Amino acid sequence: MFLERLPDELENGEALLQRRAAAKKRKDMWQSAYQETQRYAMPARETFSWQTEGAIKNNVLYDTTLQDLSYTAANTMLAILFPPWEIWARFAPGGAIKKEDLTPEIIGGLQKATKTVFDFLHTSNFSTVAGEYALDLLVGTAAIQMDEGDNDNPFIFSSIPLSAIELEEGPNGSVETTFLPKCPSARNLLRTYPGMELMDLPQELAELVLGQPDKEVPVIQCEVYHPPNKRYYGIVVHEASKQIIWRYDYGTSCPKIVTRATKLSGELYGRGRAMLALSDAKTLDKMVEFTLRHSAMQVAPPYTAISDGVLNPYTAELRPNTILPVASNDNGNPSLRVLETGGNFQIGEVIMENLRASLRRKMLGPDLSDGAIKSATEISVSDRNRLWAMGGEFARIQYEGLAKIMARAAFILQRKGLIPKFEINGRQVTITYTSPFAKSQSAEEIGALLRTLQSGDMMSVGPETVKLGLKVENIPAWIARKEGVDEDLIRSDAEKQEVIEKATQAAAAITEAENPEAAQEPA
Q: What is the distance, to the nearest Å, from the Cα of residue 376 to the centroid of all Cα atoms in its chain?
């Protein structure tokens, strides 16, 4: 909602620019770390240093192993956490709702809301920014913008470069306020920010829009959290005049979603797997450089040639296909002789293979152990262990990223009246995940149940005793929900009772047909 005025504490463009300057100073401390990580892992996405559009950025490396693994790891993250065209999360009743109060209408309403969210999500441009989001998470920090559109396309996503976003944290370490420097052309300024009018602009800026529409206008776009009313405000400050030229009330949902893969206590920005693998990547790149230089010496070796003078070590260059003047070549003193360069390629190959294996483990998790052909169970356990090895950062990505995407989607659709209103707070409504990563966590619970049932069989306690100790009638529905089966396929308690009653009536009808005389006897 466009505003004419912000709360008094925020209606100060110069103060907001000071807050932005402090956020930029803190971001600058991370520039060298992020820049070097992107240089080795994804040089095409490195935007900290200025380069012309279309420039080739990966021509300074000798080895591209980390680049290949980064894109593979990003695609793996997509497939595991938020696979395209699949429902990877659901709205579910919260813990404050008692089981006896759960009606088919409540469950059906949440199921319908989930389907509506993902119908719009799958037809939006989310899949086009999800890959960039995953790549930035491998570096450490990722940010996307989730704006509100019209009723036909309510979600509009845009990826925010890691080099541009500047963060301000709250008292508990969470990201509350963001700053984004932008330079839209003067002709597009009014179209970029809905509700902005020419009369609201400072005089020099209004003249720029009318007289020099192609000139860029430096502004700072802020999404500021206001603790007194727990609302987010969109604010645009014109850097030159330090005046606020746009004000917007986002309500209780912020359109910018910032996620950190892992985070150290006391730090604001995140550290990703590519940063963890940086030392191995740098060592491998240098080893490949040495190997290539040595190979060039072997393919086109330098020569030594007899000279009447004395060798000057300060001017001699050891390069392929060069001639070094020497006083004598010995062994018959030939005019030209191949220079022995020495070296052992096998040692280099062993070192490089160990480094590549280390990079694979750090980027993709532990590999399958060597040995005989694995059974399906062994492969399943190995995949589970691989997911567990990445569980810490994936759980954080779910909390800081996916949960906020779902909450923002519900907020937008509720405001448009496309889904019923409910509060996602864990008590009334919660978010459950049905992605492959979540299913791997559920698999352990299902395995514990199956082991319990098998132990009952092994102890020969009998099915009746098992039924006495466990609610076996609820087991199929419990397993189905853990595996993410659609609620339409799971019977409610009322539907179960209806099936039981029909079965009882059918059994009674068969008995009556087989023994009509017994059925006619008076009670």
A: 29
Is residue 319 one of the residues assigned to a domain?
A: yes
Query: What's the token pair of residue 64?
Result: 């591209």
Q: What stretches of 195-324 show up as alpha helix (H) in DSSP?
A: 203-211, 273-276, 278-299
Q: pLDDT band for position 294 (50/70/90)? A: confident
Question: Between the CA of residue 256 and those of 30, 34, 124, 225, what are the distances in Å?
Answer: 20, 20, 17, 11
Residue the block writes with tokens 């191949």: 338
Q: In angstroms, what is the C-alpha Rg of the chain?
A: 33
Q: With cut-offs at 50, 70 and 90, classify the pLDDT of residue 388.
A: low
Q: Which neighbouring-strand residues pair with 158?
A: 145
- Beta-strand relationship, 166-169 and 336-338: unpaired
Burial readout 130-140 (b: 16 or more C-beta within 10 A, e: otherwise)? bbbbbbbbbbb
Residue 286 covered by a domain: no
Name which of 414, 481, 494, 396 is nearest 442 in CA terms. 481
Please determine, for residue 329, whether its predicted confidence score (pLDDT) is greater than 70.
no
Where in the sequence is the domain holding 333, given as residue range(s)?
302-340
Name the residue among 83, 117, 78 with its Cα closest to residue 434. 83
Model pLDDT, residue 313: 55
Please provide the distance, in angstroms rounded to a whole number, between the alpha carbons at the two ends of the chain.
74
Phi then psi for residue 96, to 5 deg, are -80, -15
Q: Amino acid identity of 148?
A: E
Alpha helices in 48-201 (DSSP H): 65-81, 104-122, 126-139, 189-192
pLDDT at 510: 80
CA proximity to 351, closest of 268, 289, 275, 414: 289
Residue 38 falls within a domain, yes or no?
no
SS (H, E, C) 163-211: CCCEEEECCCCCEEEEEEEECCEHHHHHHHCCCCCHHHCCHHHHHHHHH
Tell me the CA distances in angstroms from 277 to 19, 135, 274, 367, one per residue in order: 34, 14, 5, 16
Query: Which 3-state string (H, E, C) describes 383-451?
Result: HHHHHHHCHHHHHHHHHHHHHHHHHHHHHHHHHCCCCCCCCECCCCEEEEECCHHHHHHHHHHHHHHHH
Cα separation of 260 and 400, whole Å?
7
Does some domain include residue 513?
Answer: no
Structural domain total, the chain:
1
* Chain-centre distance for alpha carbon 335: 64
pTM of the full structure: 0.80
Give me the amino acid identity at 430.
T
